[in-house]
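Bench log, entry 3. Co-assembly request; chain sequences pasted below exactly as received.
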Amino acid sequence: MLPLPHTVWRSISKVLRTSAVDSALTFIVRFLVVGLAIGVFDSVQSIQGLQEQISVTDPNDLYSAMSLSSRKQRIFRAERNLYLAGFCFALIFIIRRLFQLAAKNADLVDEIKIASQGTRPTTANQQPSSVPATSGTESAPTNTTDQELTEVTPIENETEASSGHEDGVPRQRRGFTQGSDS
Amino acid sequence: MASPLWLGVYGVLCLELILTLILLVPLPERVEKGMVKILQLPNFISGWTFFVRFLAIALVLAVYDSIRTIKYMESKILDDPETLTGVMANSLDRERRFRAQRNLYLAGFALTLLFVIIRLVQMIRSNINLREELKAISSQQSSTAPSAANQTTAGTARRRN
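Structure output for the full assembly:
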């Protein structure tokens, strides 16, 4: 319930996603759900049974009047148990949903961080593309493109490391290899 | 006959349970967005805040009242004499104690669910905002990538010339 930082949620979700903890938690949660469902069912059944008994009792009879009090007592007890079991039952699902949402939010924050880091290198890569137009106009084109390639390589490495291209071949490198081939 | 106060608390609890059930189910993004849009309306926020504060105060008072009654009944049960009237009174006191305990769980459950609903709405809202932010960043990336590719092709074309 507390608005904890995303790093805390990330570490909690990491711990929970490990196979040993996950399987143990699943077993415990299933056991609790079944136990609490039985508890709720039992309370509802006893409330219904006691209410039927109360409706049958004769208020003029002294013995019935005494037993009415004890039955009412039992009804309130059963109702208390129903709320207790129902509360625990509902809380299991609420906790599960809260964990899901918190883990999702932490993942989204990570994705946004990676994506925002990825936008910076793409704007930075636009600068080296203008280099060949100014330096390699009259002299031998193959030598200058080789020089440019060595100049650009560190920047490419930076983009690969930061943005994490899935195919492993950034767009700048593709452009230069085409140029040197021609 | 049940008192109107506790019937009201029971009604609030039922309403909260329905709301919680709706929030617990992973709804489609469009429905969630619509819900959040309605919740972000200024008129709705002011009305909602007043209603939540009123409910929270009322439920806290109900919890306090139940705890007080339980304590009073427990002390009374201990003091009851062991005569016939005492035993009958003891039975009645036990009944009242169980009733107070039931009311405590009823009010406590309703109070907890109130905070749970607020937190769930907050988390769903932040989730939607983060998703939109990610979409905006990815669309920005996709729009800048073609321009960078165009610049590189223009550079190679100049070199060929």
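DSSP finds four helices and no strands in chain B. Residues 84-160 of chain B form the longest helix (77 residues).
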